[in-house]
Amino acid sequence: CSLGYACPDGYQKTECLAGTYAPGGVAACLNCPNGSTCPLDGWHTPSKCPSKYYAGEGATECAPCWPGHACKYAATPWPVQCTSGYFAKALAADCSPCAKGNSSFAGAEDCYVCPPGTSCGFEATPSPTD
Hints:
- The chain has a two-stranded antiparallel sheet. Strands 3-4 form a two-stranded antiparallel ribbon.
- By secondary structure, the chain is an all-beta fold.
- It has no helices and 14 strands.
């Protein structure tokens, strides 16, 4: 069976739909794997998403990494949420530490200044202390 097609009975070709692929010689089209896309009908090799983007199973396009999350590697299947004390803008490969005197909640796009009477005495302080 040709690349991009499935042959359920071994003879008749069925073109794989976008979001699926066939490397050739398969009876059924395969879902495009996490972290990759299969954007067109007849696709035969999944395309990995670049860093700063992600894709779930059966995707036809890569999606930009969300604010407060990181997509460090190519073929990221799902964005990783930044922990408290770190932040990330949209399309971030990594979460960045909040500066001394600042903190953040998990999944933050920005840091906040620690309230008066509390301390955030070091970089990436997860929560202000009294």
